[in-house]
Amino acid sequence: MLCLSLLALVLPTVFASHIVPRNHHHHKRGDAHTGDKLFSFYAVGLGACGGTNSDSEYVVALNVPQWNNGANCNKEITITYNGKTANAKIVDECMSCPDGGLDFSTSLFNFFEDPDVGIIHGDWSFVGSQPIATTQDTITTTSHTTSHSSTTTSTKTKTTARPTTKSSSSASSTATSSSAATPTPSQGPQILTEFSNNLMGLLGLVVQGAQAA
């Protein structure tokens, strides 16, 4: 029973002495925010990019989502925090960093903040990287409206006709000839009445002659 108790006390100590501590993410007392990217620091050494660096260099380990199978190895980045700016180089991969997060070398972290803070939040971008510019061709149509004023001018011309004497005589002769050649409707019945009267008178004379004989 005593042996079992001793083993229970000794075994955790033995296993703990063989656990290798992970370099990345030295978390201590809280964090400070001036951006949305998480920054921590680690013990720099042999990096995933194949080189060996020291804590005195401004180098970082990049988060897995942006690691891109090492495509961003040795690229320069610009980091800003609390009004301070510094450039650093990507030399390693940070397996436990969140998307957008970085692990700094100790000297780089110390440039921005006391290492006792443990974690800070800032912003960073690749040096020389530019967002994709979207070009939009804007066609501006300008409409010109011209106002026309229509002015109507009324002109009255007075014409005075002065017929010549020849024209008046000709018109008078024509009117007279037409009047003589064409009987008016009132003359027709009168002539017929006179003809009937004459005919009756003639018949009366014939009758009287016959009676006298």
TrEMBL record:
Keywords, comma-separated and alphabetical: Signal
Ranges of compositional bias, category Low complexity: 140-185
Superkingdom: Eukaryota
Region described as Disordered: 138-192
Signal peptide: 1-16
Keyword Lipid metabolism on entry: no
InterPro entries in UniProt: Expansin_CellWall (IPR051477), RlpA-like_sf (IPR036908)
Positions of transmembrane segments: none
Official protein name in the record: RlpA-like double-psi beta-barrel-protein domain-containing protein-containing protein
Organism: Mycena rosella (Pink bonnet)
